[in-house]
Amino acid sequence: MKKYDFAAIEAKWQKIWEEKKCFEASNDYSKPKFYALVEFPYPSGHGMHVGHIKAYSGLEVVSRKRRMEGYNVLFPIGFDAYGLPTENTAIKDNIHPRIVTDRNIEKFTNQLKTVGFSFDWSRVVDTTEEGYYKWTQWIFLRMFENGLVFRDKTSVNYCPSCKVVLSNEDSQGGKCDVCHSDIIQKTKEVWYLRITEYADKLLQGLEEVDYLPNVKLQQENWIGKSTGAFVNFSIKENDEKLRIYTTRPDTLYGVTFMVIAPEHPVIQKYRDSISNIAELDAYRDECAKKSEFERTQLVKDKTGVKIEGLTAVNPVTGKEIPIYISDYVMMGYGTGAIMAVPAHDTRDYDFAKKFGIDIIEVIKGGDITKKAYTGEGELVNSGELNGISNKKDAIAKALEILEKLGCGEKGVQFKMKDWAFNRQRYWGEPIPIVHCEHCGMVPVPYEELPLRLPEVENFEPGTDGESPLAKIDSFVNCKCPKCGRDAKRETDTMPQWAGSSWYFLRYCDPKNDNEFASQEALRYWMPVDWYNGGMEHVTRHMIYSRFWHKFLYDLGLVPTSEPYAKRTAQGLILGPDGEKMSKSRGNVIDPNDVVKEYGADVLRLYVLFMGDYEKAAPWSDSSIKGCKRFADRVWALQDMVTDSEDYSDRLRSSFHRTIKKVTEDIEAMKFNTAIAAMMALINEIYSAGSITKGEIGALAIMLYPFAPHISEEIYSNVFGKMLSEQSWITYDESLCTDDSVEIVLQINGKLKSKIMIPVGTEKEEAFELALKDTKFAEAVEGKNIVKQIYVQNKLVNFVVK
Question: What is the C-alpha to C-alpha distance for residues 80 and 502, in angstroms, rounded to an integer?
């Protein structure tokens, strides 16, 4: 057999698969279906990296296996193509973002096809195409109609470099997600989606799905549901009340001061009665320069100003307590006011020490002269709560007291905030709203969708935080759809997350001009049976898309309450140095280079063989060479084929065991051990010296989901048929058990040797076989055997003197 020419053979089979449309999902809805989903890529100018290959290879293997098992498989791909990086490249290179996007998509498509992924290329979606974003806008308008869209003036995270407003999720750590510049705060009118309305549904839905435990936990933490109490603190000087939320109403007796946000409206309302208003204004202006991250950091100097002229009253003790403003309290979180219990909260303790405020112990167990005590214990100095040491009982009693006094009640809060849903950039979906002086905010009529992005030459963002669309009079000036008078269009565009919040639905029916997908297609394909992606997207993207889906479910437009039945995640591929791959470190591996040197099948095998699929693993050139040697050994088996269609007696049991292992390991995403099992089987075949036609056929089928090109070529050479049209191989459970087993031989509990014996060997026979082992026999010779122990199929142990 001539040497394996991977370049020619891989190109040959990719062409055949495409011509025969082997991987297109059928519209025959009578067949059992399997919908496998991977996160569609953002088509950057850098092209794919090896992380993409690993991310897609898991469900690629499962999908190829499912087709052979008789399923109608939908394994689609598309492009999440709106966003800042494309627009920034377009500005830098003076090219329209449409051209940049099309060029990048073409590059990605060629790379994906070169690796031989079995995607359904007839269903590709591109979030920037008018036929797609028409329906993104349509869903937005349905949300608007149902009160889930609103505008509010607020302090926002603003990236001065990208000139764009960012959500909290896109500016974690005080840095822009896109360019990593420092974020500043800016007051602006912002579009929001009321995702908080769905907080409970999003939490409850996690009980219906099969997600990795860590995925569920991250989503639960992101939503951040807490139960506690809302408490009203009256202000002595007027009739105003400051409302706070606390998870520990049992510590109310220890409240010695309050802190409100520097932007709290009560300050403006009563500014004339505040003697140090100038000091408060100056502090507020300083806070406006800080990012939310800077303001809420725990480890930093405590700053604040006492409000002279407003005094709060502790509702359970009746004592007057001072009110401060401080940067760590923000209007966007909770009520914009907090109660402070310095004896039992570290931040409150540090603040109280700095400003000389009383510290009253209400939980026994620590030394509050030295630091705050944050543990549990018996309540003291707490009126009716004194002597209670069970936190749950204490909270219940505190709630009773609050309700009796009429100053508070049980409540629930969520950490998750409403979703800031706009960008001041060109390359995004236009928000289909018209602003009319007479009618207010008016939706663009559905029949006028899509509201298209205008053709422009200058799409640079404005310096004042305005969208470049605001500069285009022909786009901005319009007639009100309601009253017909002069009006202006909204000029913000949607964030990049919009298109990815429903793409899985469009795959079901991607060419439908009349609806985002037909009910028939949705009923057949949904939910997604298995979704795989990165851990970095399990909060933002997954929560956003689950929110959109649940909204559509409530309207009766999708058949399932949850979009994804199962969610798994792959680990990162690290650089050869064990660090995260990055251009600056110079440790990035280009998949194109690997395919050119070793072929697509070897790349596919290696990314799945390099370790546990869910864990990070470093790239290793020596290990990829091992996968190349394995592929070469598989190819050379064709020189050893005998005519028998059956398994040989020598290898029958080994084949059945390997088929079982590969079958089960694919479902458990244990791809590395499945490949290892096939490597071990190859060793046995070479030891046997020959392989039957039946055996090489079975091996080709097992290997096919991992290395499809070489498997197709071997199967075609031996059988003259297409492997992708064959059925998955089965195994006989009775032939999967080992005939023999390795046991350990011990003297006085210490290992002396190991031997193979038949499975189920009885005690006396096991002792005889043990004594035939030279090492063991020598260790026993001349000794007095006190006791003989046998654990069937595991060990023989002689106690000797």
Answer: 11
Strand partners, 123: none
User: Percent of the chain scored above 70 by pLDDT?
Assistant: 99
Asked if 782 and 734 count as a contact pair (C-beta separation under 8 A), the reply is: no
pLDDT, averaged across the chain = 93
Which helix (H) or strand (E) is 430 found in, with range? none
Does the pLDDT value for residue 464 go beyond 90?
A: no
Give the C-alpha distances (Å, rounded to integers) separating 497 from 71, 414, 420, 568, 762. Answer: 32, 21, 11, 20, 66
How much is the average pLDDT of 52-72? 97
Beta bridge partners of 788: 798
SS3 434: strand
Rounded-to-integer distance, Cα 163 and Cα 84, Å? 10
Sequence-distant (≥ 6) Cβ neighbours of residue 267 within 8 angstroms: 260, 274, 277, 280, 284, 307, 325
Is the dihedral angle over the CA atoms 645, 650, 652, 656 positive or is it negative?
A: negative
Other beta carbons within 10 angstroms of residue 725's beta carbon come to 11
pTM, full prediction: 0.85
Residue in 34, 74, 64 with CA at minimum distance from that of residue 705: 64
pLDDT in tens, 257-315: 999 999 999 999 999 999 999 999 999 988 877 777 777 776 678 899 999 999 999 99
Q: What is the pLDDT of residues 629-672, one digit of tens each?
A: 999 999 999 999 998 999 998 899 999 999 999 999 999 999 99
CB neighbours of residue 409 within 10 Å:
13
The residue type found at 112 is L
Q: What whole-number distance in Å separates Cα of residue 164 and Cα of residue 147?
A: 25
> What confidence tier does 171 reach under pLDDT thresholds 50, 70, 90?
confident
Tokens for 476? 């901005």
Measured distance CA(743)–CA(758) in Å, rounded: 10
Residue 774: Cβ-neighbour burial (10 angstroms; 0-12, 13-18, 19+): exposed
Give 569's DSSP letter.
E
Q: Which two tokens stand for residue 580?
A: 């995260």
Q: Computed over its alpha carbons, how large is the radius of gyration of the chain?
A: 34
Alpha helices in 372-476 (DSSP H): 391-405, 473-476
> Helix axis angle, 693-703 relative to 671-688, nearest 10°?
160
What is the per-residue burial (b if ≥16 Cβ within 10 Å, else e) of 648-686? beebbbbbbbbbbbbbebbeebbbbebbebbbebbeebe
Q: What mean pLDDT comes out for the span 575-603?
A: 90
Cβ-contact 600, 115 below 8 angstroms = yes
Query: Distance between CA atoms of 292 and 171, rounded to whole angstroms?
Result: 9
The pLDDT-based confidence of 217 (bands split at 50, 70, 90) is very high
- Both tokens of 698, joined, read 């079975």
Which is it for the CA torsion 180, 184, 188, 191, positive or negative?
positive
